[in-house]
Amino acid sequence: MTDRPAGVTLLGATGSIGRSTLRVVARHPDRFRIVALTAARRAESLDELARDVEPDFVVLAHGRPEEFDPEWTGEWRYGSDELAAAAAGVEAGIVVNALVGFAGLKSTLSALQSGRRLALANKESLVAGGELVLEAWRSGGGELVPVDSEHSAIHQCLVGRPTEEVSKLVLTASGGPFRSLPADQFQFIRPEDALAHPTWSMGDKITVDSATLANKALEVIEAHLLFGVPYDRIDVVVHPPSIVHSFVEFRDGSTIAQMGHPSMEIPILYALAAPERLPNEFRSFDPIADGPLEFEPVREVEFPMFGLGVAAGRAGGTQPAVYNAANEVAVRAFLDHELSFGGIAAVVETVLTEMDPRPVGSLADVEAADLEARARARETARCVS
Ligand code: NAD
Ligand code: MG
Questions:
Q1: Which of 99, 204, 220 is the pocket-test mutation for ligand 1 (most atoms within 8 Å of CB)?
Q2: In a domain, 351, yes or no
Q3: 65-74: per-residue pLDDT in tens?
Q4: Share of residues in the chain with pLDDT > 70 (%)
């Protein structure tokens, strides 16, 4: 037990993971203290959170001081450069990266380079940054603890055992709202249908990614990078109740799973306190009441975003960043009613085919691939409906 609560810098405080993190921290004031809160544009929400939590400072990444008159009189910082600076701040023992998309990459690198514990929800930064993130983790001496429920499960099942002992990682997927939708109905999917997730309540981008299964492809890449297991030893199985969060199959024939009700507060608490287990008020898994636990295969033909993403991961270099960027643009266009549900995969496939994988030597290489993929995706989305 430490005497002083650990400082927590919370990037993306106004989002779904951000708010869950605030609830978790509020239950353990003796262990954690919020040092900084950040938001993209929602100054009023950030102001309200700051009044409640009293951090050392807040960052509004995409807003200017003259646009808003805050009630909270503490320190306000402005601009996206302040996010990565906050991730390296001296009081930040733990950085929770709950930003969404590629915008979180610099903060992920900054937290790891400065030796912090990074509780990582922002999987896109790991997927796009790939080796760069792993290098920052190695050289900075920080810790990377996943918040994503599947990776938290694997982390807990592995408990530090080496990769050679693992024969397979099996990630579970809820299957999303269109798990059993007949193929001929996909053309009628509207944004509001995709946003109605059956088991998890999350931000819009990841909810659409869960509906296309792009989220599961991002998670396969995330698992490969985090745990150093080759792609042909990572499987995905659909598990609609979202109780079993993932499995690790060991070479001796034992399979270990982690289970719990679908609440992100459990993996968030674990990422903050690991390997310690702090008290939590959640009801645990009840084998009689919560069974039976069903599993089924992924419908790869109906959900092409899954195979495209895993192929991009296998191709390596800049391809995962290209897949991620094209997906971010296509999802935005879908949510804005400018692209059909099926159009998301069409756009991403076109951009991946147009751009050859390039090696990644620096952040500039990834940023260039991200920018080019976005431009191509916007152009393609205009032609595809
Ligand atoms: P969200 O959209 O609800 O929240 C995103 C947060 O990031 C907000 O605070 C927003 O202000 C901020 N933000 C967004 N774009 C930004 C930008 N360009 N610059 C600065 N700040 C920006 O998203 P979420 O659902 O909380 O997801 C956050 C991350 O966690 C994503 O990477 C997602 O894949 C991952 N994740 C989420 C869940 C979940 O249950 N929500 C589960 C697993 C993983
Ligand atoms: Mg997940």
A1: 99
A2: no
A3: 888 899 999 9
A4: 99
Amino acid at position 375, single letter? A
Task: Please report, for the domain that includes residue 95, its CATH number.
Answer: 3.40.50.720
Least confident of 76-80, 258-262, 282-286, 296-300: 282-286
pLDDT of residue 159: 87
Position 139 in a domain: yes
Supply the range of the domain harboring residue 59: 6-146
H or E segment to which residue 382 belongs: helix 363-383
Residue 13 lies in a domain: yes
The burial class, CB within 10 Å (0-12 / 13-18 / 19+), for 102 is: buried
Q: Which atom of ligand 1 is nearest to the CA of 121?
A: 30
Quote the pLDDT of residue 2: 52
Q: Given a cut of 60, is residue 38 above it in pLDDT? A: yes
Q: Tens of pLDDT along 196-243? A: 988 878 999 999 999 999 999 999 999 999 999 999 999 999 999 999
What whole-number distance in Å separates Cα of residue 274 and Cα of residue 303?
A: 35
- As given in the structure block, the two tokens for residue 93 are 């023992």
User: Which uninterrupted H or E stretch holds 38?
Assistant: strand 32-39
CB 16 within 8 A of CB 7: no
Strand partners, 8: 34, 94
In terms of Cα–Cα distance, which of 28, 33, 78 is closest to 58?
Answer: 78
pTM for this one?
0.97
Domain count, the chain: 1
Contacts of 97 (CB under 8 A, 6+ apart): 11, 12, 87, 104, 107, 108, 111, 118, 119, 120, 121, 122, 125
Res 91: pLDDT? 87
Residue nearest to ligand 1 atom 40, measured at CA: 202
Nearest ligand (C-alpha, residue 223): 2
- pLDDT attached to residue 92: 86
Q: How confident is the model at residue 385 (pLDDT cuts 50, 70, 90)?
A: low
DSSP label at residue 379: H
Name all residues whose Cβ lies below 6 A of ligand 1: 12-18, 39-40, 42, 61, 80, 98-100, 103, 121-124, 148, 200, 202-203, 205-206, 264
Q: Average of pLDDT values for 293-303?
A: 97
Structure tokens at 174: 């809820």
Does a structural domain hold residue 345?
Answer: no
What is the arrangement of strands in the sheet containing 255-259, beginning at the earlier edge strand? Answer: 234-238, 166-173, 244-250, 255-259
